[in-house]
Design a protein that fits this description.
The protein is mainly alpha-helical. About 65% of the residues lie in helices and about 5% in strands. It has 7 helices and 2 strands, in the order ααααααββα. Strand 1 and strand 2 form a beta hairpin.
């Protein structure tokens, strides 16, 4: 060992490893989650229009934080899972969720359109 250098003890190395693992597991803040989910829409202008109509009919779900949490719950994801997922994987999961909503009759109307409940929530993130 060179003079003046200290080697880390096992306890220090373990503490550093645990600290790094915790830092990696910290989820995105909810506004970042809502922004990531918004990026999954193909036409933001249409989504905004439909989202406004849905938000007027379902004001109880209107905050972006609540909408983002409801969508993640429907996908059975937590923020850590979302952070590790590619946009392609997320878009695929959202498309499957929308189809499942239609199959189960989990529908709402907005601006004259029948939408999946989660599709409407996704559009409402643009409001």
């Amino acid at each position: 060992m060179r003079s003046g250098m200290r080697c880390a003890t096992r306890r220090q190395a373990l503490a550093a490893s645990i600290g790094a693992a915790i830092a990696c597991a910290i989820p995105l803040p909810v506004p970042s989650i809502a922004a990531r989910l918004r990026r999954m829409t193909w036409d933001p202008a249409s989504a905004r229009r439909l989202g406004q109509a849905y938000a007027a009919a379902a004001p109880i779900e209107f905050t972006s934080e609540d909408l983002a949490r409801l969508i993640l719950d429907s996908l059975c994801l937590d923020p850590v899972d979302l952070a590790r997922m590619s946009d392609t994987q997320l878009r695929t999961m959202l498309n499957t969720l929308v189809r499942t909503d239609f199959e189960r009759g989990n529908l709402t109307t907005a601006d004259g359109w029948f939408l999946s409940l989660n599709e409407a929530r996704l559009a409402a993130l643009w409001v």
